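User: Predict structure, ligand glutamine.
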Amino acid sequence: MSKGTISILQLYPREMNIYGDWGNVLVLKQRLAWHGYDAVVSEHNAGDSFPDDADLIIGGGGQDSGQLVIQQDLQAIGPRLRGLAEDGQPMLAICGLYQLFGRFFRTVDGTVIPGIGVLDLETHGGKERLIGNVVATSEEFGEIHGYENHSGQTFLGAGVTPLATVTKGEGNNARDNHEGARRHNVVASYLHGSLLPKNPAIADFLIRTAVERKYGTFEPGEVDDTLADLARRHAGSRPR
Ligand code: GLN
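Assistant: Predicted complex:
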């Protein structure tokens, strides 16, 4: 018998969904099932009305051109996302959407794409792209594995904390060893790959938070993470 139903809302799956980011949605769906919960996945695309019933919000990376396409709609739903984030809604924003959850992204050609200020950070595009495998460590989630490919370099303000400290690769920028950002129950990261198959601790954090907000308590199921552990070991042994 199902313990409950969690509604996952994927933001802009057409434009913001590269390097396998769709895999994050699949992992949330499958792990919810393993934990004994049903998942309903819906999409928000530019022009759609924003739903009232999302329990978990997720969005991926995209080209600068895709970020330009969705920016107007993102501005329109920005106040809703800000309110939900402040209220403790779990969210996962990867790379291109992570950048736009901040204050702005100034692209390599000087175009300024305004962000929605869910997160206190800003992003500056440069000629050098940061590309390769990343390993980072976090007190909250342990070792985090992923793949990065971005021209924007992100710098965090005082209102957010880094998700993790980079031990291999670059993460937010080429300067400070920070990867990603955290505020309330928002997790933001540059890492594709996708992120959640190799980092089930982050997936279960998002799931637990969504279930607790909706039902009060989360009853985990038995999950076999042998494959995820294997993928983590393999990823960790890869050259940059
Ligand atoms: N277009 C952004 C950049 O290049 C984001 C890229 C991405 O999402 N991988 O920085």
